[in-house]
Amino acid sequence: MAATLALLQQLAAQLQRGAAPTPLRWIRALVGQTLRMTPVDNIDYLRSDAKYTLIAWRGETHQPEEAIERPS
Q1: Residue 18 per-residue DSSP state
Q2: How far is the C-alpha of 20 from the C-alpha of 13, rounded, in Å?
Q3: Quick one: pLDDT at residue 9?
Q4: I want to staple 19 with a disulfide (CB 3.0 to 4.6 A). Which of 5, 14, 33, 62 is the partner?
Q5: pLDDT digits (tens, 9 = 90+) for 5-59
Q6: Which residues lie below 8 Å from residue 40, measured CB to CB, with a gap of 6+?
């Protein structure tokens, strides 16, 4: 409980200072059994269902690629 309170106080202090949150830069997802780090700027779309999120992007070859992000 003390750790949660300390985190909330830290976040409140950042908001009062006007500190903007750091934008998300990477998404981790599985392509088969391989973990892939995909830059957010390269993502074309995300599609979620009840269990997984499909991430679609264009890779280095500019061909469409897809990966599945599993819930943590």
Answers
A1: T
A2: 12
A3: 92
A4: 14
A5: 999 999 888 888 776 777 889 988 877 788 888 888 888 888 888 888 888 888 7
A6: 23, 24, 25, 26, 27
